[in-house]
Amino acid sequence: MTQKQKILYQKIDEILWKSWDPIGLNDNENCRSEYQSYTRYIFKLKVEGADKVKISNHLHQLTTVSMGLSGNKKHCDEIAQEIFDLKI
Predict the structure, then answer these.
(1) Do 46 and 8 form a contact (C-beta atoms < 8 A)?
(2) Gap between the Cα atoms of 88 and 69, Å rounded
(3) What string of pLDDT tens digits covers the 88 residues of the chain?
(4) CA distance to 9, 27, 50, 70, per residue, from 81 (Å)
(5) Would the pTM of this model clear 0.90, i.e. be above it?
(6) How far apart are CA 49 and CA 37, in angstroms?
(7) Per its UniProt entry, which superkingdom is the organism in (predicted)?
(8) How far apart, in whole angstroms, are the C-alpha atoms of residue 11 and residue 16?
(9) Terminal CA-to-CA distance of the chain, rounded, Å?
(10) Are 52 and 84 in contact (CB under 8 A)?
């Protein structure tokens, strides 16, 4: 992984923790690793050129299927846009 890719990976991880946070844990640093297992695949989508729709759909699926929450598609769209706009 190049230095630029490492920075991108870290930015995606931060977005998932600070902005996406579907469970509402980001005020507890002890739970910091909660979303890190999702970072790798979101990073892969971004590097492979996925559009914001694909990223949003994946985030929404994680929320609704993997976590069993009701989900907020609009919020996933906003987070996907933020990730999509990151420069590699």
Answers:
(1) yes
(2) 31
(3) 899 999 999 999 999 999 999 998 888 888 888 899 999 999 999 999 999 999 999 999 999 999 999 999 999 999 999 999 998 7
(4) 16, 23, 11, 21
(5) yes
(6) 20
(7) Bacteria
(8) 9
(9) 12
(10) yes
Inter-residue contact 71 to 51 (CB < 8 Å): no
Residue with tokens 């931060």: 14
Residue from 86, 44, 1 nearest 58 by CA? 44
Joined tokens for residue 88? 């590699």
Per-residue CA distances from 7 to 30, 41, 62, 66, 75 (Å): 23, 15, 23, 27, 24
